[in-house]
Amino acid sequence: MYISSNPSLPFGALFGRRLGNGSESCSGPSDSRIYKYSRAREAVADFLSAAGITAGDSVLLPAYICSSVLDPFLKLGIRILFYPIDRTLSPNVEAVRELLSQKPRAIFLVHYFGFPAGAGDLIQECRENGLWIVEDCAHTLPVPDGCGIGSAGDLTIYSLSKLLPVPDGALVVVNNPKLEWPETPTAVNKRLVFINMLWQAANAVEVSSGFSFRTRLRDKRAATKMITGLRESSSGGKPTLVNGSRSKYQRFQMSPLANRIRSRIDLASVAKRRQENYQVLKTAMKGVRGATPVFGDLDPAGAPLGFPILVDDREDVRLKLIAAGVDPRPVWSGLPREVPIAGFEDARYIAAHNVVLPVHQNLTPKTLSYIVSALERAIATSQ
């Protein structure tokens, strides 16, 4: 048996009928504007332009983050001020308050794994200090009833390819009418789409055959570097200087293929299924010794990316899960080198101890039961 960390592409998503009128529906004010991109980082670059944040300005980002999120800031010369999070992935409010003295222009709040960041008062305080509020909802889906996720900020960003079987795709929801959004891109990142569709096909074959070659390949550093390089556009690297200023960050629109697949998937049904699967694992996890759910008994407000737990010997447990045919989604197992060593102990602890179990929409009661059994064996044999 092989249980993937990602859902497989259903046949009906390519050739089935379109659901509704194809328009997006997200949490947020009724006059929100929605724009589509190939990847979320490209939407971030356009936000920086719309907000007038330029080289030398600073923004607030949580320390528990992946390197790809930093890419537009680093390439456009934006200074990053990292703020700590605790072991429940909530921002350290006092630390953010201290950083406000450095006059950051915006704060990015991450709703990890589909759970609210719990930063209502912090959002208000940052807004009073003139900061733009960006909600990073890459770990959940844009559904009308987001239970507060994605409706409080000036901007909300979703990464569809993290939860849906699409080759690319990100949505940006502009909630603040004062943000004059730049012209959206028209080019398609054909290389990225091609590579990711091959990846989707491989995922379907592996689930069907019950064996995954990619999980073995992923632990090979050279192979991972090669695959990442293939996914990057041909004109990667830092923007060049034009008339003394940095050129625009390279951006692409969401591909027509991703739009087609997305329009044939019922997001509300996907979100409900993921929530139900999360509940099954949450109940079963109460009997598993040596695994601590990151969010305890809390329920996800949106569509959860996965079921994150903390274990003592993460690498051993992860490898044993893979050997048993369960792919634990790798989520930021190491912090970017730009994050300072001191002051971010909780973020580093989570990065070093997290295992994220799949909860995606393809799973059945049988596969969920197998995941729990495999986890119990992996922990028992690693102690």
Short description:
The chain is of the alpha/beta class and 383 residues long. It has helices at residues 11-15, 40-50, 67-75, 93-99, 120-128, 190-209, 214-218, 221-231, 256-263, 267-285, 314-323, 345-353, 365-380; strands at residues 33-37, 58-62, 79-83, 106-110, 132-136, 155-159, 170-174, 241-242, 245-246, 292-293, 307-310, 354-357. Among the domains are: 25-174, Aspartate Aminotransferase, domain 2, CATH 3.40.640.10; 267-380, Aspartate Aminotransferase, domain 1, CATH 3.90.1150.
Describe what you observe in this structure.
The protein has helices spanning 11-15, 40-50, 67-75, 93-99, 120-128, 190-209, 214-218, 221-231, 256-263, 267-285, 314-323, 345-353, 365-380, and strands at 33-37, 58-62, 79-83, 106-110, 132-136, 155-159, 170-174, 241-242, 245-246, 292-293, 307-310, 354-357. It is an alpha/beta fold and 383 residues long. Among the domains are: 25-174, Aspartate Aminotransferase, domain 2 (3-Layer(aba) Sandwich); 267-380, Aspartate Aminotransferase, domain 1. Helix 2 packs parallel to helix 3 (67-75), helix 10 packs parallel to helix 13 (365-380) and helix 11 (314-323) crosses helix 13. The protein starts with 10 loop residues before the first helix and ends with a helix. 43% of the residues are buried.
